[in-house]
């Protein structure tokens, strides 16, 4: 611990810059920097005058940052994490890691173990760091159709994904209440926009449309569901706002506040791709979701405490998703 304290006195002086919003900018560590959310987050932090430490298991050519460190945070010792944060003079951490995973063990590692190690690593720096946890609207579990999900709703997830995401978020909030870290949880809806991964439904549709040959017909099973989607660049703006806002110990929902039929989003993708409807065979499918057939976030609290509202229309987001998929650097890396 003494060695960690010594490193703290030798922090980089580069943290006296100012953001575009007038706040004192610092060095922000982005965990999961090579993924869809992390990539946009690094871009937004750099755009607003921050220094960025990008952290992921593997490097990627598309990562933009002042420094990159390859590290599996879920497997790293807290002392290793603390040394990394001190060495780069980190003032805040945004946890944008955590894919969906295919097993409970993978989800536990990504959503629980990682958060626990991150918290202990931040505590070991001997200063109270801001941690912004990119959570999920699925932490609330399924809700009746027509309900706008606000932050007062008691979480009741039923799936391993929702349960593990909720456990990680609640651990951070509990450690914040104990005064060990300065945490905030952003519960985000489904993401669309540039570089959406193929593990998502819309990302998979984009990949299949990109591979569609002349005269070929694409078959899709589309659930009769209505979901809230937010552009990843709007989500990145919310996370940057949360780095500085007085939101300690709070949960803030991030979305567009609209429940859109999945069929409408698929049609928008076909329009962006210039694919005729005759090239598609679309069948109805059972709802198979981590949060049920309906999600719609109440985003009034985000406007109140973060000064944030979504700015990118879904049509523009879908077009950006299609156009970005032509770039080979859009491949998801972790």
TrEMBL record:
Coiled coil: none annotated. It comes from the Bacteria. SUPFAM superfamilies: NAD(P)-binding Rossmann-fold domains (SSF51735). Residues 1-23 are annotated as: Disordered. InterPro entries: Epimerase_deHydtase, Lipid_A_modif_metabolic_enz, NAD(P)-bd_dom_sf. Residues 28-255 form the NAD-dependent epimerase/dehydratase domain. Residues 1-10 have a biased composition (Basic residues). PANTHER family: BIFUNCTIONAL POLYMYXIN RESISTANCE PROTEIN ARNA. This is NAD(P)-dependent oxidoreductase. It comes from Streptomyces koelreuteriae.
């Amino acid at each position: 611990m003494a060695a960690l304290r010594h490193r703290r006195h030798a922090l980089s002086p580069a943290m006296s810059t100012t953001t575009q919003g007038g706040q004192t900018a610092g060095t922000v560590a982005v965990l999961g920097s090579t993924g869809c959310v992390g990539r946009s987050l690094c871009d937004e932090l750099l755009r607003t005058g921050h220094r960025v430490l990008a952290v992921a298991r593997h490097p990627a050519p598309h990562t933009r940052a002042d420094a990159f460190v390859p590290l599996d945070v879920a497997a790293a010792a807290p002392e290793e994490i603390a040394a990394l944060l001190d060495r780069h003079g980190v003032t805040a951490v945004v946890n944008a890691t955590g894919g969906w995973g295919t097993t409970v063990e993978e989800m536990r590692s990504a959503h629980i173990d990682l958060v626990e190690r991150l918290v202990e690593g931040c505590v070991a720096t001997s200063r109270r760091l801001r941690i912004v946890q990119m959570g999920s609207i699925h932490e609330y579990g399924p809700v009746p159709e027509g309900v706008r999900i606000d932050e007062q709703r008691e979480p009741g997830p039923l799936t391993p994904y929702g349960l593990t995401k909720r456990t990680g978020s609640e651990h951070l909030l509990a450690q914040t209440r104990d005064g060990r870290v300065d945490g905030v949880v952003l519960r985000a809806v489904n993401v669309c926009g540039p570089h959406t991964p193929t593990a998502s439904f819309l990302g998979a549709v984009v990949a299949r449309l990109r591979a569609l040959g002349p005269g070929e017909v694409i078959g899709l099973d589309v659930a009769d569901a209505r979901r809230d989607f937010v552009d990843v660049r709007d989500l990145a703006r919310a996370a940057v706002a949360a780095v500085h806002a007085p939101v300690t110990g709070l949960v803030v929902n991030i979305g567009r506040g609209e429940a859109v039929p999945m069929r409408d989003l698929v049609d928008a993708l076909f329009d962006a791709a210039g694919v005729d409807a005759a090239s598609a065979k679309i069948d109805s499918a059972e709802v198979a979701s981590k949060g049920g057939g309906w999600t719609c976030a109440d985003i009034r609290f985000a406007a109140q405490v973060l000064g944030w509202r979504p700015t990118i229309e879904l049509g523009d987001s879908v077009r950006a998703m299609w156009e970005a998929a032509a770039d080979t650097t859009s491949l998801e890396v972790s």
